Amino acid sequence: MERSLRVATDYRGCLICHVLDKDETDYMASLQYQTIKDERVRQGVVSSNGYCNFHFHQMARLASPMGNAVLGKGLIEREIGEMEHGSLESNWEIDCLVCRYVAEREEVYLEELQILLTDKVFQKEYEGSDGLCRIHLKKVLNSVEDVLSRFLLKTQVMHLKLLKVELDTFISKVRSTSRDMGYEKNSWWVAIEKWVGKKGLKVK
Fold it and tell me: What is the pTM for the complete model shown?
């Protein structure tokens, strides 16, 4: 499913991380289903050496025990064959299909954001959002003109100041044993994502 960053402006946290997370989940669900049903897809996963540590653990929770067993059997059969033929040395690297897909989608969203930021209407929507995590902000700053760079930095400072107020409110309420949380209830999570991006995000 094709997504646009325009649908992410109401989301708490980084716009790009949000759409990437949705794409990643959809792709993994499709891939784990096809791995059981389609021999060609399964062989593609096996020839890539399965998934990276993070995505294999994610897949293990997403897939059925049967799906995990079928893929595990394929990987083990391949490894046995390579060991018996003495060609294991070339087989240590994992070319995770999910990592590759997420990296491709990330590039699409980074390019889309650069285009959207030239639109004054979107700039207003962006100001009203939580903006970007540090990782995606850095990537966008490396490829936009000075005017947009200044806009992004000014907006990031505004977002961070607003988030600091939310965190102060959250901390104050927890310390006073008040559980009447408002908009600030997710501020601790937004702060983490603002700093490091979504779980499993690759930093280059």
Answer: 0.84
